[in-house]
Structures
1.
Amino acid sequence: MSLVTRLMTFSVYLALMVSLSAPGVAAADTVAMIGTGRVASALGPQFAKLGHRIVYGSRNPGRDSVTALVARTGATASATTPSRAAAQAEIVVLATPWNVTERVVKGLGDLSGKIIIDPTNAYAPGPDGLRQLGVATSAGELIQGWAPDGHVVKAFNTLNSATMADPSSAGGPVTIPIVGDNQAAKDRVAALITGIGLEVVDLGPIRYAREVEGMLIVWMNARIMGRPFEFHLRPH
């Protein structure tokens, strides 16, 4: 190998090491998007833009709409069954309706050590038509109980899919609250959030998921009453 070639190789290696050590930059992960609805369709392409490989988990991975979503996500994206998607991923996103989430989580296989992003919300209509929490504890805590060896991070539950797909459409900064018991997992989720152009605030362990899910209730009820807003928590 000539001196010039060795120098060029070293320069490429050095640039790679610098980029990986920069704040907020992480190595590429395989991300399993469990579901192919609005949340998955918004976050999958966004995470792919950050260099992550996206695998959609669908009951019918060959469906035309799933094939179109895979094509829109990028060349490295694919689709398979939910359990196979989760098996090959470091990060699992539960982009599922709440009423099927328990069955889906319990059918994903071994989630030990995986980061599980929970954007779900368990809510029900109240007698006046406004929304209220639908479980005694929280969706996040229940999911952590169904996957005790995974690292659940509550995130993305306080905004709509349009803002996930295009954060600039909100007309200003939007803050995503997160909670979870594993700090390293929260840090990686925070990097995803800031990477796609949103802000993040860490509100503590998973036992505070109920409070974060209550923020969604406030957000929904404001919209029902004709006073919509987006969360922006200004740091001091």
Note: The beta strands are 30-34, 53-57, 78-80, 91-94, 115-118, 123-125, 131-133, 151-154, 175-180, 199-202.
2.
Amino acid sequence: MKFSRSEFLKTGILGLGSALVPASSLFSSEKSTPAETLNVGLASYTLRKFNLDETIAVSKRLGLQKIALKSMHMPINASADELKSMAAKVSAAGLQLYGAGVIYMKTQDEVAQAFTYAKNAGIPTIIGVPNHDLLKFVEEQVKSSGIRLAIHNHGPGDDLYRSPDDVYSRVKDLDKRIGLCIDVGHVQRIGQNPAEKLEKYHSRLYDIHLKDVDKNNEQGKPIEIGRGVIDIPAIIKTLKKIGYKETIAIEYEKDEQDPVPGLAESTGYVRAVIKMS
């Protein structure tokens, strides 16, 4: 169920006004921190054509205080000192670096590298995609480091973790710190209900990539959140019902050269739904 325009006008949507402002004006020190009952953050892949400083500035401007960095913003092959410096920059800006990824792990060396990377940057959660035969080694790394792994589903064409069901079936007997990052867009594109999967696997749900798509099939493309086919209100109601305490990371994949207006619109929509749910 979508909210009507009149309902949104009554809420005074937070963030949508930013979509009407030139992107350059978002790179300022001004910070918006609206109160909300769920933790809305940013998956930095949204800003994949921006550098780290610009990404921090946009996140601050939109009040997205929790951020997971992708490798273009925090290279996985950076030195320990470089990683500590980048993490310190995020913290100094008043943001929480809660995760990193998506990180693909096809060998034991890549698994070890990912956990060393997260440890050096002080990151508590890796959003990753390990090959099935590496899961026992992943479990060893989780136990020795205390760092969680949230495995990301990738929908159509993904032979490893097409659905959250595939993730859970592989991790249910492993250390409980190995869980899921549910990407609701990919769930929708394979004809499943994102809200149902969030509730079903809530005990091992450590991250969410929140987005919208324009079709209920594998041809579905990214679109501003609220304009597509995903029932965002149902998702938010489910997250409140299960008492979700982790981050809802907005991942706006459209308009990679100029994503800020669409990201601002999406953020405003999500906050309005949180307020009204």
Note: The longest helix spans residues 260-276.
3.
Amino acid sequence: MSKAVNVYLILSVLFVGILLISNIAAVKLIQAGPFILDGGAFLFPFSYILCDIIAEIFGFKKAKKSIILGFILSALASATFLLVQISPTAAGWNNQESFVNILGFVPRIVAASLSAYFIGQMLNSYILIKIKAKTGEKKLWLRLIGSTFLGEIADTSIFCTIAFYGVITGTQFANYIIVGYIYKCLLEIILLPITYKLIKMLKNYILSKN
């Protein structure tokens, strides 16, 4: 197996794993002072960073494959949780309600997660490649930040609206969207030096002879 294939597989596995964990964590809304976020905020922004790295190193087609794989496995996870949810409960097991509350199939959450993820990640990778076509290998910061800013607009607004509009309304809902978007973009900027180093390190590793 070539170094390039190895790197691509590892990045894709990390990408999909972070996505699945984030989807489960996102069912809980968290409030810190006046700010409202969902539990996916801890890990989900890293899926954008990983997708940026995949697109930057391997191109849009490879990034698209990883995104589609994530979509399929997210749908499979939702279908599995639904099957478990509707299966007969064993005598003496009294946690059905808890299971449903956390892992249960909630159509609007599933719809929000899948649609926001697919559109946001595809837009993110597409914009990164389009900027790279104009800038070449220069201005990596512009590709990373610009693609995330646009991708997260779609992702955050779609997910928040489908998943939680009506559950929270008015200023709380606006707070949820704005804070979530700003937080994800700021994290991308803060981690930019690490993303730079990872891309450079992985490119050097793939091109090295040993």
Note: The chain has a mean pLDDT of 89.
